[in-house]
Amino acid sequence: MLLSKRVTAVLSASLLTLSCQAALAADSLNFVSWGGTTQDAQKQAWAVPFTKSSDIKVVQDGPTDYGKLKAMVESGNVQWDVVDVEADFALRAAAEGLLEPLDFNTIKRDRIDPRFVSDHGVGSFFFSFVLGYNEGKLGTNKPVDWTALFDTKTYPGKRALYKWPSPGVLELALLADGVAADKLYPLDLDRAFKKLDTIKKNIVWWGGGAQSQQLLASGEASLGQFWNGRVYALQQDGAPVGVSWKQNLVMADFLVIPKGAKNKDAAMKFLANASGAEGQAEFANLTAYAPVNLDSISKLDEKLAPNLPTAYAQDQVTLDFAYWAKNGQSIANRWNEWLVK
Amino acid sequence: MKVAINAQQNAQGAPTGTGAPGAAVPPPSMRQRWRGSRNLVPALLFLGLFFFAPLIGLLLRGVLEPVPGLGNYEQLFANSAYARVLFNTFSVAGLVTLISVLLGFPLAWAITLVPNGWGRWLLNIVLLSMWTSLLARTYSWLVLLQASGVINKALMAMGIIDAPLEMVHNLTGVVIGMSYIMIPFIVLPLQATMHAIDPMVLQAGSICGASPWTNFFKVFLPLCRSGLFSGALMVFVMSLGYYVTPALLGGAQNMMLPEFIVQQVQSFLNWGLASAAAALLIAITLVLFYFYLKLQPESPVGNAR
Predict the structure, then answer these.
(1) ipTM of this predicted complex?
(2) Is the pTM of this model over 0.80?
């Protein structure tokens, strides 16, 4: 008798928690990003105010993993509602049917820089690959543009380049080889690799932001290709680091909703909020990444504004995400072949 | 049932035990051998459901995606870049094994030779390094080996070198970092083997007129063989599948198979090719593991008794 009472108590308790979870689930969404300071800023700039105004809880998860995203969509058990991904992946995943189309009645498309919005994704932030250099290593000899990377006599030392076969390295090699910015695509791979061959021994590859900072600040690399926010952070810390914005290469992250996301409607509202003028400006002020919303520029911190890609639009090359989405895999094959040769 | 298992264990354990040599105990019959195997059902069910089923699913992708057939394997073997990745994987694993053996052997010997208390201390230090976070240890090597790192600065201050040595973001870095991580895995089996060797045997050798060198090569080394082989194989197999250390300490041009698989899975969602590469790695590992088992005196395929 006692036992059965206990059993009933346990059962009803577990049922209660189950129903509570169900009730909670309706008012929450999972947000997935790359972790670190970026996700902290996204939480502070987007999630916290969003929860306050809408009463929808935002659960932070991560890091972003494209393999996991695909597995979730394929198995039909999608745990993630909003995911921060690279722009070229957003376009590729949309083509593979992994993403929900966005609801542009909720999200205001007309105020977003058209470079950073598509039917299945809206910009999370954008940034530039800039030419960063260690002033201690190069002294008064300040490099100006990407050609400096290939001039080992004037600028001795290692060159730090981004390790993955993704937009950036091939483009800067072509620009340095004299290709006009508007004639970059389709990429002349033979020419790009031939140019990179001339400095292959002098390249040190970085795979993540922290590693790139370590290479540049320590002087292990005297110059290279860096994310603008990372160089800015080094300068803020007083590291002897300089930057040239000439032909800065624009890359972006997109926010997407995986196909079959459980809290789709809440996710749309979240995207509208995150890509809004306020959310974008707040995030930019926290991270030194640039806002995708055109109305955010006036809301930027005065000290920070000159250090963002938005201030160097005139000499800017926007990388072609659509081209990479389509050709990324075959370029990667060539890339790997060249690397291990 | 329990008694039966114990009895069986005793029977199998006997050859290495203190008492009777292997011949004294008749080998258990088939029925005896499989007695109590029903107890394994829950474990087998668990493994089958949560390990083998997903594994088979993964391997099937290699022949089903993007189109059914052996296209992925063809691509893997035809492309010179992938052949190079395979070659890198093997040469790094081989080099790491060699260095681990060369460094681990004297260490294991030292642990065996020094007075008891000290030996335990040495062993604890080896074990302690194993328990420290892999990432922390790998990053420490990065700090030590980089151009502006401790080692280069010290060497330059002493005037031994003029320019910093390149010891990281290349093959050197990977081999140093991985050898360091693998040394415990060779020291432990080796030390166990050496510990079991009766010192009288060596004494007998020298009494019979063997020089120290002959004694080492003709008596000691053959006695260490099983520990040496099993340790070396374990290190080799583990090195084949290593990801973190090569990714952090290596340069992009020394890509190994695990990193290639991660790239295909995470960046390109090319799961067919990744699964083919994974299958290759599993096949190689299984073949090597078979040899590993053969060298274990108590294994079902062993012949070392």
Answers:
(1) 0.73
(2) no
